[in-house]
Amino acid sequence: MDAIDLSLLELLRGNARLSYAELARQVGLSAPAVHERVGKLEASGVIRAYRAEVEPEAVGLGVTALIGIVEDSGGDTDDVLEAFRRMPEIESCYFMAGVESFLLKARVGTIAELEQLIVRLNRTPGVASTRTSIALSTKWENRPQPVAPPFT
Amino acid sequence: MDAIDLSLLELLRGNARLSYAELARQVGLSAPAVHERVGKLEASGVIRAYRAEVEPEAVGLGVTALIGIVEDSGGDTDDVLEAFRRMPEIESCYFMAGVESFLLKARVGTIAELEQLIVRLNRTPGVASTRTSIALSTKWENRPQPVAPPFT
DNA sequence: TACAGTCCGTGGACGCCATCGACCTGAGCC
DNA sequence: GGCTCAGGTCGATGGCGTCCACGGACTGTA
After folding, report:
1. What is the pLDDT confidence band of residue B50, given thresholds at 50, 70 and 90?
2. A132-151: average pLDDT
3. How far apart are CA B11 and CA A40, in angstroms?
4. Greatest distance between any 2 Cα atoms in chain A
């Protein structure tokens, strides 16, 4: 993991569909060299995936909500997590410090669907309570940090 | 925007580096047809970007925090937003319903950097107070919803 | 019905790209 | 020195991206 790897990561975070030839030109190596470096970054898990970022409204997911979850004292955290994992509306799941053990980001089409999701969450064994905040608009999301910090 | 477009979106959300030829095979069209459809999805803004998803720890960003912002009654929301936009640590920014006008997701390298970020946020004109929760671990993030809902 | 226009696809062509193997070079180590 | 290995370049080749000409389905109009 050197400066060239960091440039590659930055380029691919900006546009994941750049060709190896183009990446090679940008970092000043040959295409096969870049191919091998990117392959290693993928294999070692530094690059987790390549994703197209889709406008949520365009696929009928206009409602974004952030939901804090307070866990039941008796519940099994793994079971709760597994239940969350089975709910496709939950796009992100963070295990938090604080009273609320989890913070979920969910995306649904309508407020009615959000209501159903909250009901399902409250019924989930191990969940003591939920606290939902609705996002009126997403100013930006998953913005790549422009420069990677100095590296060891 | 028909069923084929939705399949293309789903395929590209799963792997943004699929070739047009491969996409064409999956949806049963020719490569040029897919090329044109994807081009239109990009032009119309349905596809916002293609991003490589990078393991944050691997680039020295091991600390994730979610920060709620209460706005000053006198402040200008646009100015506050602009100030946030200039802080690269802020990866996502939602405008919320509720007492806290914004929810920010920030990623930094160390707790010390988080402290500096919070100080900067509290000093920002228009910000009345902040409430920071630290994510101990990210269970998952930006998971693509498996199937797009029925479409009009 | 006939006709023209539009949309959206296919197939062919051509140049660039991905990818493989062979080879080169410098660093580290006996 | 000479071995080994990591990591690069170069050259070849098959597949891919992309442009263009063409054609069928649908629609509105005479």
Report:
1. very high
2. 82
3. 23
4. 58
The per-residue pLDDT for B65 is 98
Q: Nearest nt (C1') to A34 (CA)?
A: D8
Say if the Cβ atoms of A95 and B135 lie within 8 Å: yes
The answer, yes or no, to whether residue B151 has pLDDT greater than 80, is no
B49 → closest Cβ in A9, A53, A98: A53
B14 chain-A contacts, CB cut-off 8 A: 49, 51
In this prediction, residue B19 carries a pLDDT of 96
Q: Which residues in chain B have Cβ-Cβ distances shorter than 8 Å to A144?
A: 51
DSSP labels, A80-99: HHHHHHT-TTEEEEEEESSS
Task: Assess whether pLDDT exceeds 70 at residue B81.
Answer: yes
**Quick one: pLDDT at residue B75?**
87
Among the partner residues A13, A55, A146, nearest to B51 by beta-carbon distance: A13
Q: Is the CB atom of residue B12 positioned under 7 angstroms from any atom of strand D?
A: no
Look at residues B43, B32, B56, B41 and name the one whose alpha carbon lies nearest to residue B109.
B56
Contacts of A49 in chain B (CB under 8 A): 14-15, 52-53
pLDDT above 90 coverage of chain B, percent: 91
* Long-range contact pairs involving A131-134 (C-beta distance under 8 Å, separation at least 24): A131/A67, A131/A68, A131/A70, A131/A100, A132/A65, A132/A66, A132/A67, A132/A68, A133/A65, A133/A66, A133/A67, A133/B96, A133/B97, A133/B98, A133/B100, A133/B103, A134/A63, A134/A64, A134/A65, A134/B96, A134/B97, A134/B98
Distance from CA of A36 to the nearest CA of B (A): 16
A98 or B75: whose pLDDT is higher?
Answer: A98
Residue with token string 């960091």: A6
Please give the domain boundaries of chain B with CATH numbers for all domains. Answer: 3-43 (1.10.10.10), 56-135 (3.30.70.920)
